[in-house]
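Internal QA ticket QA-208
Title: Verify multi-chain structure generation after dependency bump
Assignee: T.L.

Test input:
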Amino acid sequence: MAEAKENVLMEKIVSLCKRRGFIFQSSEIYGGINGFWDYGPLGAELKRNVKELWWNTMTRQREDVVGLEATIIMSPAIWKASGHVDTFADLMRECPLTRKRVRADQVEPQTGTIVKYLGALNRSSGYVLRGDSEEYPPTISLRPEQERTILEEFVAEERPSSLNEISHLKLGLCGEEILMRLGFQGNQKQIANAAREWVDRTVGMWYSEPFAFLLPQGKPVEAARKAAIQFYTDRGVLEPCLIGEKTFRVENSTDFHPESGAELSEARPFNLMFKTYVGPVESEDNVAYLRPETAQAIFAQFRNVLDTSRQKVPFGIAQVGKAFRNEVTPRNFTFRSREFEQMELEFFIKPDEAIEAIHGSVATVPATGHPGEPQPNWGWQAWHQYWVEERVRFYEGIGLSSQTLGFHIQTPEELAHYARACTDILFKFPFSKKDEQGNVAGDELEGIAARSDFDLSQHARFSGKPMGVFDEELRGAWGKLDEAKKKDLWQRYHDGRLKYLTKMGVDPAKAAKDAKEDADGLAKGQYIPHVIEPSAGVDRLILALITNAYSEVTKTDDKGKSETIYVMKFHPRVAPIKVGVMPLLKNKPELVKKALEVRDLLRPWMNVFYDDGGSIGKRYARQDEAGTPFCLTIDFDTLGEKPELLDTVTIRHRDDGKQERLAIGELLNWLLARVR
Ligand code: ATP
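Actual output:
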């Protein structure tokens, strides 16, 4: 029951998003397009604020991260190197009735009665047997009901458990018998030949693909027959005669389409990249892809950024931008879209062997919590934990409390083969599932992965361009190590490289040679940086912020009339409009003039909404729905009716309705302290 309530909540949120101009369905006037969403005036501001906050936090406020803005379409070689061309696929299953696809791992378990058919016969009317040589009998025609009877009788007699069990010979014998019973005239040979032709044709009329259907609760078996007839008709069987109907119960089966009830096809991989062609010729040579993630451009431009930014490892490159995935089942509003935005950081670090060579050992990481300010002796574990904690801080700083967040630490089975760890930060959405105890873990907002040196290594191999860096400190330190330590570090680095090369299918002799060269390189101060990747989705975060902000109160007045009031309690940092500015009365030019002065004072610094229409209460309510944290009212006291209040305004707080008085001269700093 709780689930139904949550769906109602999602419906209300979707409806508010449309009503107030946060999110619209893309191409709505043409019936929409599944998996694509547009952001309206308030949504566009919200999104801009979120991206700007991320950018400021991740780049401008740090010494060790720089930005990048790359193209959406890049050389297809990038996607070959990254593995996306070969492996970026979801296992998906198709509904044979609707052709809709669902992700194999996302089919809801269902319990009920299954009706199964082995196939169908084509019993089109006017079936004709013809004989055109002397060996063949003259043409005979079967009346439709005659033929139907024969076929059904035959099927009933056979009761095959699989159509393949009916042998051609057996069918041939039946054919002869059938012709005789029909009073077919001819000698033995003519009958045998006619029967053979009949069998050939009849066998050709079997459509032997099984079809199964999960009966909806309380529906008669006719519903299954109707679906099966549609299934076989779609496959060219005219007037299908259903064969071998069987019913049985299933518990928690994930084999049936949740909407149509039809049994799903086997799971097949389905590449999620959108394909296009560059230039006027649509040939395989011109294939290109819309990027399915922003990260790869960062790896591909790693060298250029390193050479031009005066950064040294450890450092990061950040990018915000569009990504495209032809998701099999876009769902949960914007949560799984086909076009979305990502905010990704690739933070490049030294391999642990280099840290050990320089600092003697790699810093140990506290079991939980923030490991503090970055230290030179941090290995991948400390950096990974650092970025998980930094990202959580970011979310808390924009109003997502720790109670609304969750974590999923990927198990070794879930991890990509090259990854050392991956922690997903989850948000508890209204549609997030409950476990048996009623606890909600949440759904992924962001993944923070320790990706080893896989990405740069792949691009180095595929492009033939060096992706390694030279580290003077490492070279100096290596020279001072004792022989045993050198040998130990050399061996560990060598083994890691060899494992990677072997996994990638590099010829064993070449892999052995390259791994040795790489380990020799480490001893000379060279390595391919490892990477920690915090990768967040803008749209999922917007959805989290909207569902987190949503609140409604139903008030009933003295006359029993009830009204529901919606307040979007956005953190002031992300709120689309920071402040509403309102003259108490619209028809008092002095009030309007002063209010416009206040608006113009604030406008260069933040998004201000000027509103002079309707009662002040209505105007507040409108801003509450938009999530505006503060409203300023310019009244007669502002103009000096009470001299001590001259040039002050009323500030009204969205969340508790409290009001206070503030001098216009202090306004800007007061607001900036809260909205930045
Ligand atoms: P999921 O398992 O939910 O498909 P993912 O693990 O494939 O996500 P990543 O490839 O790690 O996602 O992408 C990083 C982030 O990009 C995700 O945490 C998510 O916020 C966002 N993202 C990925 N796919 C989508 C999508 N189809 N729609 C909206 N955001 C997405």
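Spot checks passed. The first strand starts at residue 23 and ends at 25.
Status: verified.
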